[in-house]
Amino acid sequence: MTSIGTGYDLSNSVFSPDGRNFQVEYAVKAVENGGTSIGIRCKDGVVLAVEKVISSKLLKPGANKRIATIDRHMGAVSSGLVPDGRHFTSRARDEAQNWRSTWKTPITVKDLASRMGGYLQMYTLYSSVRPFGITAIVGGWDSELESPVDGQVGSGPSIGSGGKVDSKKHGGPGLYMIEPSGIYWGYYGAATGKGRQTAKAELEKLDLAAGNLSLFDGVKEAARIIYVAHADNKDKEFELEMTWISNMDGPTKGRHEEVPKDILEEAEKLAKKHLEGEDDEEETKDDDKMEE
Amino acid sequence: MNHLPQAWGRPRDDVYGPYDGSYLQNDGPNQHSQSPIVTGTSVLALKFKDGVVIAADNLASYGSLARFTDVKRLRKFAETSVVGFGGDVSDMQYLDRLLNSLDIEEAYGSTGHTLNAQNLHTYLAKVLYKRRSNFNPLWNQLLVAGLDGEGKPFLASADLLGTTFSSPSLATGFGAHLAQPLLRKVAPDEETASKLSLEQAVEAVKASMKVLFYRDARSIDKYSIAVVTKEGIDLKQDEKLENQSWAFAEQIRGYGTQVN
Amino acid sequence: MTMFSQNPLMNGPNYSFSQTPTMASGANKEHSFYPYTDNGGSTLAISGNDFMIMAGDTRSTSGYNINTRYSPKVFKIGGTTSSQDDATLVLSVVGFAADGHALKEKLDAIVKMYRYQHGKPMSVKACAQRLSTILYGKRFFPYYVTAILGGLDEDGKGAVYSYDPVGSYEREQCRAAGAAASLIMPFLDNQVNFKNQYIPGSGEGHALVERAKDPLPLVVVEALVKDAFDSAVERHIEVGDGLSMMLITKNGIEEKFLPLKKD
Fold first, then answer.
1. Confidence bin at B258 (pLDDT 50/70/90)
2. Does C104 have pLDDT greater than 90?
3. CB contact under 8 A, C13 and B65
4. In this complex, which of C11, C22, C29 lies closest to B19 when CB atoms are compared?
5. With contacts defined as CB-CB under 8 Å, which chain B residues touch C63?
6. Basic and acidic residues compositional bias: what residue ranges (chain A) (predicted)?
7. To the nearest whole angstrom, how far is the Cα of C179 from the nearest Cα of chain B?
8. Within a domain: residue B85?
9. Per the CB < 8 Å rule, is A153 touching B71?
10. CA of A233, closest CA in chain B: separation in Å?
C-alpha cells in the first residue's frame, strides 16, 4: 500500500492513477480481521461454518447466530463487520422473496450470488457510500427434483416442466463467495476472514473438485478446518457455528438448517483430537499482508 | 350460507329482497375478485382423540364445467397444520403463496417453527377480514386443522368476510348442508370427539365424502384426505371413493332415461 | 368483457342457465360485494344494586345453518393476562361476528394500554365513552354489531351501557340485544322495571298505584336471565345451544355456562 497518503484513498469510487479503488481494499482489510468463515461443497450437500470469536464472557453461548437462512434451501455466512453482514442477509432475503414472487420458483444459488454481487458492486460506485466490510459465503442446494411452482394446484404435465435436457443434470449443490468489490466466484471450498490462508490450504488438500466428499465427512472437515484455522489465534476463545443443506434424500431434505447438536459435538470432538495430534508440530504464523 | 360460492358474500334474499344482478351487465373494467371464477366445493373436517381428519375433493369447477380434476385443495403448512380451501382457486393459490413466504420467514430464526394451527388460523382470519374491509375479498371459505398451543386438536373455519368459528366437526359449502349433520351425529360435542378413534373419524369423513359425491353436482370421486396429529401429517392426495351404489337412483323420478 | 362473453347476461360462468339477473338493469350500479352477514344469537344484560349480569347464547348461524354450537359472545375486557382473570369489565357483541370479534380485540387492546399507562383499571364510565368513539370512528363503514358494556361504577353499583352500531349509547337498568331482542326486552320491561305492574286493589284507572321499583337481588336476576333465554330459544331459531353468563360483583367476574336447547 505504497499509495497511502496520496489522497486517492479518501473517497469511494475514485480510482488511483494505477487503477485501484482504495476504499474497496480497506474494506477487504476489515474482512481480514473477522472470524474465519468457510463453506464446503460436498457431493450431496453444502456445509457452512464460522469461527465465532467470543468478544465477552457475558454473551450467552449459542446466541447471536452468524449464519443466516436466506431461503428454505440456502444460507449465508460472512466475515468482517457483523452489521454489514446483517444487511447483506436482509437484502439477500428480499432478493430471494422477489425471485419467488416473480418466477414462482426458488432462486438458485448462482442467481442469488449474481444479484448480491451486483448489489455489493453498487457500493463501490458512489462517494456517498462505503463498500461492504464483509466477504460473504452463500451456500445452498438447488432441488434436483421436479419441483412444483409455488401455489401449484395440480400434478403438472406428466413429462415434467419444459426446458430440460435429458442427459443434463439439474439442481445440485451451490457455493459462492462474494467480496466487497462485488466480485463473486463459485467454489468447491471457500474461506474468508482471519484464518483464510490456513483454511484454504486445508480445503485444497480435500480434493473437493473430484466430488467424492460426502456431506457428513464435510461437516467433520469443516469443524476441523475452523479449529485448525483458529490455532493461529489461540488467545481468543471461540464458538463453532455450523449449518448445512443436504440433497432431497439427505438429512435436511434440501433445507438449510443448523447441524444437529450431536453431530456438531461429534465433529468438534474429532477436530480437537486432530489438533492434539498436531500439537507437536510448530505452526507457522500467518502474517497479515495483502494477497496481491 | 348458500353452498354456491357465487352466492357467498351477497346480501341475503330473505332479508334484502331479490338480489339485483344488473351490475353484471355493465361494460367497462371488471374488478378482480368481485366474483369467484374457478371454484372448489366442500371441505370437511372432524376432530378425534389425537388430532384432526380433513378432506376435500380434487375438483376445480368453472361454473358448471368440471374444469380441473386434479386440484389439491388441502395444503400443508410447516408439517404441523393443514388448510383446506373452498371457493375461488386463484385466491387459494394467493393464500398458499402467502403461507409459503410466512413459512420461509419463520425459518429465518434458529428456534424453528413457532406457529401452530391456532396461530395460523388467527393469521388467515385477519388477512381475510382485512381484505373484506377493503372491499377486495379473498373468495374462500377455509378450514384450518392441526394442534393448538397446548397440543390439543384444533379445528376452525374462516371465510371471505372474516367470520370465524370452531367446532368438533366442520364442513364448508354444500358440506355444511349434507355432511355436517352426519359428522355431528358422530361427534355432537367436544367430549365425544375427544374419545373418537382415528379409524372412526376417517370412516365418518369418508362416508360424508361419498354422500357429497352422490348429491353435490360440483363434486368428483377423487379426493384428498389428511390426518394431523402430533406425529405429523399423513396427507393422501389421490384417494378414490369406493363401494358406491347407484341402485337407489332407479327409484328417483327424472333420473337417467326415466321420464314419468 | 370478451373473456367470458359466452353468456351475455352474466359476464362469467354460471351454475345454471336459469340463474340470470333477477332485475332489469338500472342507471345505478350496485357494488357487488356485500361485506356483512348476520350470525344471529342474542345477548342480555341486567344491572343490580351491587352487581351486574351479562349473558349471551353461544350459537353462531349463517342463514338456516348452525356454524357452531359454541361461539361465545360475552368477553372479559382489559385483563393483564391471557386468561383475563383480573379483568373488571365485560363486553357482549351480537350481529356480524367478524366485526364483533374485531371490535372486542380493539377495545381490549385499548383498555389494556390504559391500565398499563395509568396503573389502574379503566372505569366503566370511561370505557363506555371510549367504546362509543371507536364505533363512531367507523360511522361510514360501521361495525355491524349491537354492543353492551358492563361493569361496576365508581360507587360499586352495577352498570350497563348499551350501544347502536355507530356509537350512540346510554346507561340503562337492563338491555336485550340481537336476534331475540324483541322477544326478551318486553319481558325485561315487565320483570325488571315492573312496567304494567300495579299494587292489587289499589284502585282503578289513574288511581292505580305502580309497584315499587325496588332493585332485584342477584338470585332473582339470574333466574330471570335463564327464563328469558329458555323462552327465546323456543321462539327464535337463531338462539340456542348454550348460555354463557358473566356475573360481576366486587369480588370479580364469575363465569357460568348453562346448556340451552339444541334444536
1. low
2. yes
3. yes
4. C22
5. 1-2, 12, 14
6. 252-276
7. 13
8. yes
9. yes
10. 28
Rounded Cα distance, C32 and C259, in Å: 40
* Mean pLDDT over each residue of chain A, to the nearest integer: 90
Tell me the C-alpha distance between A264 and A269, whole Å: 9
- Check residue A266 and give its pLDDT: 97
A170 touches chain B (CB under 8 A): no
| Closest residue in C to B174 (Cα–Cα) | C65
For chains B and C, count residue pairs whose Cβ atoms are closer than 8 Å: 128
Spell out which residues of chain C touch residue B162, defining contact as CB-CB under 8 Å.
98, 101-102
Note the pLDDT of residue A161: 64
ipTM higher than threshold 0.90: no
Interface check C20 vs B, CB under 8 A: yes
Chain B residue with the nearest C-alpha to that of C1? B27
The per-residue pLDDT for C86 is: 95
Partner chains of C (3+ C-beta pairs under 8 Å) = B
CB pairs < 8 Å spanning A and B: 43
- pLDDT tens figures, A160-203: 666 666 777 789 999 999 999 999 999 999 999 999 999 999 99
| Chain B touched by A90 (CB under 8 Å) | no
What pLDDT shows up at residue A260? 96
A269 touches chain B (CB under 8 A): no
One-character DSSP codes across A254-286 = T-EEEPPHHHHHHHHHHHHHHHHHHTTSPPPP-
User: Which among A97, A153, A258 is the nearest to B72, CB-wise?
Assistant: A153
- pLDDT for B24 equals 60
The model's pTM: 0.85
DSSP code per residue over chain B:
--SSGGGTTSPPHHHH-S---GGGG--SPPPTTSS--EEE--EEEEE-SSEEEEEEES-EEETTEEEES----EEEETTTEEEEEEEEHHHHHHHHHHHHHHHHHHHHSTT-----HHHHHHHHHHHHHHHHHTT----EEEEEEEE-TTS-EEEEEEETT--EEE-SEEE-THHHHHHHHHHHHH-SSHHHHTT--HHHHHHHHHHHHHHHHHH-TT--SEEEEEEEETTEEEEEEEEE--S---GGGGGSTTSTT---
Residue at B143 is within a domain: yes
In this predicted model, what pLDDT tens digit does every residue of A17-65 receive, in sequence order?
999 999 999 999 999 999 999 999 999 999 999 999 999 999 999 999 9
CA dihedral B99, C62, C77, C141 (to 10 degrees): 80
Q: pLDDT class for C5, splitting at 50, 70, 90?
A: very low
Give the separation between CA A223 and CA A225, rounded to whole angstroms: 6
User: Cβ–Cβ of B20/C23 closer than 8 Å?
Assistant: yes
pLDDT score recorded for residue B50: 97
* Residue-wise pLDDT tens digits, A94-132: 999 999 999 888 999 999 999 999 999 999 999 999 999
Domain region containing B90: 38-240
Mean pLDDT of C77-99: 96
Residue B18 inside a domain? The answer is no
User: In CATH, what number is assigned to the domain containing residue B104?
Assistant: 3.60.20.10
Tell me whether residues C35 and B20 touch, CB distance under 8 A: no
Q: Which residues of C touch B24 (CB under 8 A)?
A: 9-12, 21, 32
Among the partner-chain residues B60, B73, B110, the one whose CB lies closest to the CB of A258 is B110
Tell me, yes or no, whether B123 lies in a domain. yes
Q: How far apart are the first and last CA of chain C?
A: 47
Q: Kindly indicate the confidence band of residue B236, based on its pLDDT and cuts at 50, 70 and 90.
A: very high
Q: With 80 as the cut, is the pLDDT of residue C102 above it? A: yes
Residues of C in contact with B150 (CB under 8 A): none
Test B161 with C101 for CB contact under 8 angstroms.
no
> What total number of domains does chain B contain?
1
Inspect the structure and tell me whether chains C and B have 3 or more CB pairs less than 8 Å apart. Answer: yes
